[in-house]
Every structure is written in structure tokens, then in C-alpha cells.
Amino acid sequence: MSDDKFSLDQIREHWTRQAMEHGQSPAASWSDVNVIEMEIREILQYLAEGERVLDVGCGTGYSTLQFAAQRRIAIRGLDLIPEMIAEARARLRNVVTGLPGTVDFGVGDITGLNEPDSTYDKVVVIRAIINLGDWPRQRQGLGECVRVLKPGGLLLLSEATLQGWRQLNTFRREWNLPEIPVPPFNRYLDQEEVCSAVAPGLELVKLVDFASTYYVGTRVLKPLLARALGATVDVANPEMEWNRWFAQLPAVGNYGTQKLFVFRKA
Ligand SMILES: C[S@@+](CC[C@H](N)C(=O)[O-])C[C@H]1O[C@@H](n2cnc3c(N)ncnc32)[C@H](O)[C@@H]1O
User: Fold this and answer.
1) Are 64 and 101 in contact (CB under 8 A)?
2) What is the distance in A from the centroid of ligand 1 to the CA of 181?
């Protein structure tokens, strides 16, 4: 892994810039919009009518509003970056048809949530913990999510894992493709470390490698084909039929960097 990691200030600057450059495009969160859509599809399966849901590290609220549009829930989105929340509020103001439930957005830090204990039926965290710089802060963020969850509630954590990243790079190495580096503003999670940090309060119900096939298609097969043809490709390009098609295939294997942990609070 690269040692050129960003400081917390640099991480904050990175996300502020993303909000200002991309506004309400989902690219404010990540250029690989197909994985964002897959995450939404997966997480929606666990959200039920009438629930209180917290979406921490919600960015500009792209996923938050999709959850709110498809379930009658009371959802609150929180993000560290005021510019992200300004975009999320603008997005909410632009919703023309009535949402079945309620939505609100606020500035908040996952490592110190200004929310009472045992409040939410579901806590959703999508690619936020990997942005906390080091493991002590990541553990603190996870602890806060556990604290605000009701007993019996679910923590739906979609994050990049070291195990998935290594497995994907093993596949690439077989074909002499270079290792994909971890971005300097991220610290990927060790699956074992996460599970033991939240135990015994949280039980792992499921670890879903929902994007494994998509990662093989776009991070192994696509660059190989490009190399054979002498072409240059953007592996994450959401406008390519290649990416759209792979995003629709059932997930097979354990090659997805991004995985969904489903934890239940005792
Ligand atoms: C990869 S984006 C994900 C955004 C959103 N969850 C989504 O799925 O589109 C990571 C988000 O985490 C936010 N973030 C970083 N550190 C945070 C913290 N300490 N507390 C809350 N949010 C944080 C960033 O501002 C950014 O919006």
C-alpha cells in the first residue's frame, strides 16, 4: 500500500473540492456510478416501511434520496463537509414529486455523532469509514454507528476492504496487469479487524461481495482487452455498455473491492 497518505486536512479538502466540482452529479462521491447504483440496490433490500434511518457520510445525498423515493422511511443524511450538505439540501428542494417519507440533511462527524443512543432502526454507511485516515478513528466511527442503532437494528456498511482489493490484484497479476493502488485519501478496511471491533455488540449477518463480477469485468477483462487492442480505456466509465452490462450480472467470487457488511445489534 502507498505510504503517501493524505492528512485529515487533505482528506477534508479533497471532499470539499469534489462537492464544488461535481455538484449534484453522483461523481461527487465516485466516478464509478455503476457501483453506486449496485450499492443502492443491495441496501434497499434491508430498508423497510416506517423505519428511522441514518445515512452517515451521505455526500450530496444521491443515495439518500433514492432510498427515500423507494421506501416510506424517515431518513437523515449527515456529512462532515458543509458543501456536500448544501448540495444535498438543494437536491431535496428540487424533488418535484412527493416522497413517501421524510428526509433531512445536516453537517455531522461520524466519529462524534450528535445523535441520541439507540435511535435508528438502520444505519447506512457508504464509503465513509475509509475516509477517516487511521484505524483508531475508523473504530471510533464504527462505535458511534453502533451507539445510535436500536437493539435489533442493522448497520449496513458498504466499504472497500483490503481482502477484496488484494484478491482483485491477485487476479490482475496473473495477466501482468499492474496493482491497482489504494487512493491516498482512503484507508481500506480489514474485514477481520472490523468484525472484531464491533463484537460482541454487533453480529455479522452477511458479508455481500455484490460487485465481484463487475470488478472482474471492468478491472481485469476490460484493461486486458484494451491492452490487446492497443486502446486506452477508463475502467470506471459509466457511459460504456461494457460497464452497464457487467453491472447487471449476478455477483460471483470474491474479487470486489467494495463489499456490504450487514451487522445486527444485539
Ligand atoms: C465516497 S463519499 C460517499 C458519499 C455517499 N455515502 C455516497 O454513497 O454517495 C465519502 C463521504 O464521506 C464524507 N466524510 C468524510 N469524513 C467524514 C466524517 N468524519 N464524518 C462524516 N462524513 C465524512 C465525505 O465528505 C464524503 O461525502
Assistant:
1) no
2) 20
